[in-house]
Amino acid sequence: MSTGKVLRFDHVRGYGFIAPSDGGEDVFLHANDLLVEKSLVVPGVLMEFDVEDSDRGRKASAARILRGSAAGPAAVVAGPGPVTPRADDGGDGLCDVLPLEEFTQEITEVLLQTDPPLTGTQILHVRRELAAVARKYGWVEN
Fold it and tell me: How does pLDDT run across 48-63, given as a tens digit for each residue?
């Protein structure tokens, strides 16, 4: 098995590219070769995959998000990096309103770090329900 970070992934077209950890040519990744929900495949995610040679170059197969990195056995690399707290807005007691995409990305990272065995379908369900609550209370921009 090889490892590498997702460089880009087009969820509409269903493909993207991985930069292998051992260097070399980028590896093509198609949604049909994922063992995880494609919505979890975002730039910066560390993946584990088999490499096949095709008539168009190297291609990933049996690709999944890598669990258990050098940070420890419970670590999960789930996105572009840790959530960075926002700067203090002056202490007025109000919170920032996030774009829906940023809100759902942060939820995904928390779910993967908190409970790695969750399936992609379970994560999507929780995100959908939390997004509905966030919309109801004006916590996200529509």
Answer: 999 999 888 899 999 9
